[in-house]
Amino acid sequence: MTAVNGEPPARWDVVVVGAGFTGLAAAHELGRAGLRCLVLEADDRVGGLAGTFTVGGRQLERFYHHWFASDTDVFRLCADLGRAGLVQRHHGRTGFYYAGGIHRLSSPLDVLRFAPLPPADRLRLGRSVLRAGRVRHWRELEALTAEEWLVGLGGRRVYDRVWRPLLEGKFGPYASEVGATWMWTKLHLRGGSRSRSGREVLYYLRGGCGALLDAWLPRLAALGVRIRTGSPVAEVLTGPQGVTGVRCGGEVIAAPRVLVTCAPGPAAALLARSAHPAVPALRRRLGAIPYLANLCLVLENDRPLSGTYWLNVTDPHFPYVGVIEHTNLDAPAHYGGRHLVYLSTYLPADAALYRMGDTQVYRHSLPHLRRMFPAFREDWVRAHHVWRAPYAQPVITRHYSRAVPGVENAVPGLYLSGMAQVFPEDRGTNYALRGGRRAGRLIADRARTAPRRSNGTASAAAVRIGADRD
User: Fold this and answer.
1) How many CB atoms lie within 10 A of CB 327?
2) Phi then psi dihedrals of residue 212, to 5 deg
3) Within a 10 A sphere around the Cβ of 9, how many other Cβ atoms?
4) Torsion angle of the four alpha carbons 5, 7, 12, 18, in this order, in degrees rounded to the nearest 10
5) For residue 99, is it within any domain?
6) Of 137, 165, 196, which residue sits at a domain end?
7) Among 51, 103, 311, 357, which residue's beta carbon has the most beta carbons within 10 A?
8) Residues with Cβ < 8 Å from 264, sequence gap 6 or more?
9) In which band, very low, low, confident or very high, does the pLDDT at 196 lie, cut at 50, 70 and 90?
10) Distance (Å, rounded) from C-alpha 30 to C-alpha 36?
11) Does a structural domain hold residue 204?
12) Residues 39 and 167 in one domain
């Protein structure tokens, strides 16, 4: 195991499973409250889906990131950590790949010029987006699927040519089950991040999320938070009175409170051996939430593919749902002159593309890129990287609020906070921060008011087995 900061106290008050933005935000609140907090991360680095790698001497997220004007939680964290001056404002250039052509969709005027729709349907598309923005609360839509809502807003032809291909590309076999609340969140978020001219405004931190993490980790260390990477948790331990700790490798770590920030499926697996009577119902609830994986092929090119930042792809024969040209948002000069492109797709973790080796993924993708961008040649590519996340996107269905578990549940001392629970928002660093902070504050409040209880069979101190790997 790698210790990112600090030495262990005699006893932990809280163990946090996962060092993504949710886990780190929760640990921040717990440390501020004076609780002794240990964060355990299976990966060899912190950050979760916002974790980084190096390109041209600069850190870059493994999976694409940007922020909207409404992402106030992450802006506040940047300010708190002295990074507000690195937040840069950009105009996002969005496109739509349809029937072999690229169409701009960055402004209201672009919608009126959108050739795949006849003029009357372009007006319907524009009106439907405006009407969607007037819905003030997601509960108005929770009984509807996205298809039902969008057809009602703009008609069947607009749905079939614009929305349906996007939903099918994103959610595959689950497309018809996706709830209207998910689509409303997307339209509401983008509609609220536009300039007076109607152009989309996006924000990016110079140096990426890595620059934020570089400032955040010392702050957490100063609060007494301990982080171990390369430390996958195998089991959440429970007794008759509730949580007693976790098992991590050959080590039993005692704690009366555990916050699990991973996806519902892995969270349920951590409880598989628990005999607490409330666990079976909780595991069934967690297991009922479908999830999709994500695969990102990142290309380092010596020239741009296009002038578009975000290209939505509706071609069912193209293996990716999005082509995100990062250096059309953040300048190539920041990455040693490299032009960076994410090719992103959501798919089941047992899909053929997801199971391919990295070189196979790259070779498989080249002919599709040449079809979309006829000028593209393989000798433009200076390097490539393939990143996978087995649990990247929860499938938000109708009445999702009834399915998703709360932060607290019937197992005393067990808390849950992850991307499946940011509903009605969609996944993102801002909502991970918000959810983590709320969970951390809740746990701190419960710790202040709860009577002391035994940790059952677990030792009152972290038991170390084998060599000290910290």
Assistant:
1) 22
2) -70, -45
3) 14
4) 30
5) no
6) 196
7) 311
8) 286, 287, 289, 291, 394, 405, 418, 420
9) low
10) 8
11) no
12) no
Q: Are 212 and 80 in contact (CB under 8 A)?
A: no
**C-alpha distance from residue 106 to each of 1, 58, 67, 96, 308 (Å):** 46, 28, 16, 10, 10
Task: Give the pLDDT score at 176.
Answer: 94
**Total number of domains in the chain:** 3
Residues 233 and 317 reside in one and the same domain? no
Residues 282 and 405 in one domain: yes
- Report the alpha-carbon angle 389-394-395, nearest 5: 130
Q: Same domain, yes or no, for 281 and 407?
A: yes
Could you tell me the CATH number of the domain that includes residue 222?
Answer: 3.50.50.60
**Looking at residue 186, what is its pLDDT?**
83
| Same domain assignment for residues 358 and 374 | yes
**Mind listing the pLDDT tens digit for each residue in 107-144?**
777 788 887 888 998 899 888 888 887 888 888 899 99
User: How many other CB atoms are found less than 10 A from the CB of residue 378?
Assistant: 10
- Residue 223 falls inside a structural domain: yes
Q: What amino acid is encoded at 87 in this protein?
A: V
Report the CATH number that the domain containing residue 323 is assigned in CATH. Answer: 3.90.660.20
- Is 302 found in the same domain as 156? no
**Tokens in use for 363?**
């070779």
Task: For residue 238, list its beta bridge partners.
Answer: 243
* 233-239 β-sheet, strand order: 233-239, 242-248, 251-254
| Placement of tokens 């949580």 in the chain | 243
Domain limits for position 14? 2-49+210-288+398-449
422: nearest Cα among 265, 261, 269:
261
Rounded CA separation 219/70 (Å): 25
Is residue 313 within 8 Å of 169, Cβ to Cβ?
Answer: yes
In this structure, are 390 and 403 located in the same domain? no
Are 299 and 382 part of one and the same domain? yes
pTM: 0.89
Last residue of one domain, picked from the residues 355, 370, 394? 394
Is pLDDT of 83 > 50? yes
Q: Is residue 64 part of a domain?
A: no
